[in-house]
Specification:
Elements lengths: L1 E10 L5 E10 L4 E5 L6 H9 L4 E10 L2 E2 L5 H6 L2 E4 L6 E5 H15 L7 H14 L4 H5 L1 E2 L5 H15 L3 E5 L7 H14 L5 E5 L5 H4 L4 E6 L2 E6 L2 H9 L2 H9 L1
Parallel strand pairs: 3-10, 3-11, 6-9, 9-10
Antiparallel strand pairs: 1-2, 1-4, 4-5, 7-8, 11-12
Helix pairs in contact: 6-7
Bound molecules: adenosine-5'-diphosphate and magnesium ion (2 copies).
Amino acid sequence: MLEIKNLHVQLEEEGKQILKGVTLTVPAGEVHAIMGPNGSGKSTTSYVLSGREGYEVTDGTATLDGRDLLEMEPEERAAAGLFLAFQYPVEIPGVGNMTFLRTAVNAQRKARGEEELSSGDFLKLVREKAKALDIDAEMLKRPVNVGFSGGEKKRNEILQMAMLEPRMCILDETDSGLDVDAMRLVAEGVNALRSPERSFLVITHYQRLLDHIVPDVVHIMHDGRIVKSGGPELALEVERNGYGDILAEAADA
Ligand code: ADP
Ligand code: MG
Ligand code: MG
C-alpha cells in the first residue's frame, strides 16, 4: 500500500511551499481519486512520488509497502512497483514501441535482480497483454507514440502499465483532452488491471472519468492539503456544486 504522511514539499529554486502536509493512504486493491481546483498541488504530489527533480521534501514521508519511496532513484521506484501515467505521453521518434517496452520491462527486472526476458518470452508476453487489452499488433511496430491519436497514446500507456505489472499506478489527469470514447478506453484499461494486489491513484479535474473508474475513496485537495475525503458521492457533489462549499467548510474547520 501507498502511505503518504504529512508531506511538505517546496520548489527547490524559489523555495515556494507547494505541499503543506499531504496525508493519504491507499490500501492494496483500492482505487482512490484526487480532485481539486487547478494549482492545488495534485501534479506536484505525483511528481514528488515519481522522483522528478526540482522539488524538495521538507517534512513528511511516502512509503510503498513500507519502503521509503523518497530515498529511491526514479528507476528504483519503478522496480518497487510504482507506475505513473502523465497527462502528455512523450513521443519517441526512432524507437519502436516493442523495443521501448522490452527495455522498460528488462530495466525493471534488472533493478529487481531478475534475469532479462528472452526475445521469445518477451514476444509472448507482449502479445498476450496486447490481446487482453484489445490492442492492435500494428501499434507495437510503430515508433513510441509518434503520430498516435490521443486515444492510441492512452491505450499504449495502459499497455506499458500491463507489461510492468505495477503495485501502485498513478494517473495524473490522464483523461484531459480526451474525447468520450478515448476516456472510456482508459477506464476499461484501468478496470481490466484492477486487482486485489494493485492500487490506483487517479488524479482528475473532471468527475466524468469517475463514472467509468468508480473509486473507493475520493479526496479533495486544496492549497497543498487534502481538505476532505469521502466516497464516490463526493465527486458527484463537486460535479453538481463545484468546490465552493467544500472549500468553505474546510476553511471553517
Ligand atoms: P494541480 O496539478 O493541482 O493543478 P500543481 O501541482 O501543478 O497543481 O501546482 C501547484 C502549485 O505549484 C501551482 O501554484 C503551480 O503554479 C506551482 N508550481 C508547481 N510546479 C512549479 C514549478 N516548477 N515552478 C513554479 N511553480 C510551480
Ligand atoms: Mg493544473
Ligand atoms: Mg495538475
